[in-house]
Amino acid sequence: MDNSGNPQDVVVPPVEGVAGGGTAYGWNDGGTHGLNVKGPIDPTEIPTKDLVHVWCMPNTANVGPQDMPRHLEPINLLAARNERESVQIAIRPKVSWGGSSVAGTVQIQCSDLCSTSGDRLIVGQSLLLRRVVPILGVPDALVPVDLPVSQINLFPGETTALWISIDVPSSQPPGQYEGEIVITAIKSDAESPVQSISKVEKHQLYRDLKGCLDIVEPIDGKPLDEVVERVKSTTTSLRRILLSPSFSEFFSDNGPVDVMDEDAISSLSLRMKLNLTVWEFVLPETPSLPAVFGISDTVIEDRFGVQQGTAEWYEALDQHFKWLLQYRISPYFCKWADGMRVLTYTSPWPADHPKSDEYFSDPRLAAYAVPYKQVVSGNNSAEDYLQKQVEILRTKNHWRKAYFYLWDEPLNLEQYDSVRNMASEIHAYAPDARILTTYYCGPNDAPLAPTPFDAFVKVPSFLRPHNQIYCTSEWVLGNQEDLVKDIIAELQPENGEEWWTYVCMGPSDPHPNWHLGMRGTQHRAVMWRVWKEGGTGFLYWGANCYEKATVASAEIKFRHGLPPGDGVLYYPGEVFSTSHQPVASLRLERILNGLQDTEYLRLYASRYGRDESIALLERMGVYFGPERYTFEHMPIDAMRGQIFNACRS
């Protein structure tokens, strides 16, 4: 599916001052040809295709309110098992048929995806639908909508985007799957008032239904005669409920009447085919590339009004941790102190708590942070806390995942010495412990070399043997990828040293990063860059670091002094609805896409070598360097298809 550019037969309206300009008066997109209606428009009598434009877009497209229509094409996707693949549907009204504030309402209905052998991907489980909501005018938040049927309001002159995600389970049989998305223009709620039910009627209905449940629930182990009697009694009760006045509008003299006749749906609705090829490759449950992302516990405490150490606090942190695991991310919680010292921990419970073992043993977790000191005050004294935690964790199989992240971007000799002192204490209890330090320079008051970059390169020799994971800013490299070899040359992988990278405020456009408003391929390219440069892990400082608020539903504000979106990859669900589930950003979904791409490239490298995998990235036009990567989606699909063809059995 190539929707990366304007098809030749779709005319874009002229823009003032561009390519001759002029005004757009008289421009016609061919949208309402054949629609000849006098008076109010009744969507139950007119085909939906005459009322709305519908087209599909790839998941790297930023579909905004002013995006213009394109031709509708079938959706064809490729996914491995244990992979999530996504696509967007854009809808724009051609005319208005709704009330005063909306152009109209459409009903979206999704079917299961079925293979010829009868296997299914179930809507609502494997297939999810979310509405793309702008943040600061940029499409970003993905707000869940009801499935299998939902209603969406459209606004005059605006394009609405829907994000469809398909999660393929690891055990899903490979094959060709096909489903359908049905879009139907309907009358708005204002035009189709539904008879309201009073509180008294609701209470009676609740009691009647509960009574039915009370009759049939305790039937396990009962004699067959008694079971039959209970079912008959329940049937009588349910029939009485359905024949009550509350449901009278659905009955006629000849029995129940459908809300919308199936023939009417067939003739008036717009149907989109969704085809998915599932192949036999299974993405590893444990991500091959550890991607550790910070979650601010302070932000959670402030916004959700939970106090550290309470049951509500543990529950809130548990929700955030488990929710992020679906994105192939290894979360850690973070509390900031003076001078960029950080207290990081993946589990808020002590090492000997069953929940800690549950967290650390989860195969979806590639790495976990061990706190340098107590997170919550307990029975252990501060003096022996670290020693006891380390002694417990070293006996576990998951200890190989453990790391200590003590300081973020040390700048001077005092801060570097603090890292070394803390690391020495940890290594006294666990010589094989891994210490991670993020940095973009050496100590500025004790230069390690004549130039800033040379001093930056010499940090490993300065920190050794106290540090094992050297996590450097991509900003330092600029567009000079050849500098990577200078960094790697200083490391001693034979002694367990690793090179990880990170992004934050920098690098800025056009380099890959996750700021709001960057191109979709720019978001995805962060992980292409990691693969090409050869980093063995990745760190991101914060996923929920918006401005302080003390109400869960308070407006999201990005922190002053940071590029929009920096440190914020998901939003509180309460901002958009009554849901308490976090709301993902487009950028978070693209991070997942990039991490999945690295698994594809790793599979290809296992067959043909790492150099050939990098050659494939370049040959397919996907990624050459931090300033040269595809702006279009088609090369991504082509590369994935090439790996599919080269590696399938």
UniProtKB/TrEMBL annotation:
Query: Which Pfam families did the record assign?
Result: GH123_cat
Glycoside hydrolase 123 catalytic domain residues are 380-603
PANTHER family, per the entry = ALPHA-1,6-MANNOSYL-GLYCOPROTEIN 2-BETA-N-ACETYLGLUCOSAMINYLTRANSFERASE
Q: What is this protein called?
A: Glycoside hydrolase 123 catalytic domain-containing protein
Q: In which organism is this protein found?
A: Glycine max
